[in-house]
UniProtKB/TrEMBL annotation:
One of its GO terms (molecular function) is transcription cis-regulatory region binding. Keywords: DNA-binding. Gene3D superfamilies: Tetracycline Repressor, domain 2. The keyword Magnesium does not apply. Residues 34-53 bind DNA. Residues 11-71 form the HTH tetR-type domain. It comes from Mycobacterium numidiamassiliense. This is TetR family transcriptional regulator.
Length: 205
């Protein structure tokens, strides 16, 4: 076997185990599914599992990373339907609120993937989200869609925190089940804030 073939086989086996673990966690839950269950689902031995993962926690971490990659891939698709930064950020917010509610008719994201994604440390989730939005905000700064002095990292974190709140906390005043309400909320309170050219107050010395 050539080195390339061995590498491909290793990658395939790793992916097989992750996908099998994903299926087991979906059927049995994170707590109940065991490495034996995952091995049976994958059609491999326990020793093969341990060649790739030190323990169940490492498998959960790999599944969470897989879920994260899938989440951003699907959110990118939703955002790509919009042409402006405003359209894209509104689409991202709609995607997140619908992902939280697991609206099967839209097939945006599924409950098992969402649960695994949330096993990640909150600080890691926040950093990934900020890094995801940075290119969009940087591009908008170059095109003039947002103000030239916009701090891309800070703005990205602020928007990421808004998305986390939309995901986790129901509104007491707005019907966030309606995409047009979510989009309007983001348009009125996020994008226009990024684009404002009003003079900023001077800090006290």
């Amino acid at each position: 076997m050539t080195q390339a073939s061995a590498l491909n086989q290793a990658t395939d086996t790793h992916e097989l185990i992750v996908n099998s673990a994903f299926a087991c966690f979906g059927k049995q839950g994170l707590q109940k599914a065991t490495i034996v269950d995952i091995a049976k689902q994958a059609g491999v031995s326990r020793s093969t599992i341990y060649e790739y993962f030190s323990d169940k926690a490492a498998i959960v971490e790999a599944c969470a990373e897989h879920a994260s990659e899938r989440f951003y891939r699907e959110m990118t698709k939703a955002m790509d339907r919009g042409g402006t930064l405003e359209d894209k950020l509104c689409a991202a917010a709609v995607f997140v609120t619908q992902a939280r509610r697991v609206i099967s008719s839209e097939k945006y994201f599924d409950e098992d993937a969402t649960s695994l994604l949330l096993t990640k440390d909150a600080a890691v989730l926040l950093r990934e989200c900020v890094e995801f939005f940075a290119p969009y905000l940087s591009a908008a700064r170059l095109t003039g869609e947002v103000r030239k002095d916009l701090d891309v990292e800070a703005a990205g974190e602020w928007f990421a925190r808004i998305l986390f709140s939309l995901f986790s906390t129901p509104s007491s005043t707005l019907d966030m089940d309606k995409p047009e309400v979510v989009a309007g909320f983001v348009r009125d309170h996020v994008v226009r804030g990024f684009a404002s050219d009003r003079p900023r107050p001077r800090r006290a010395q």
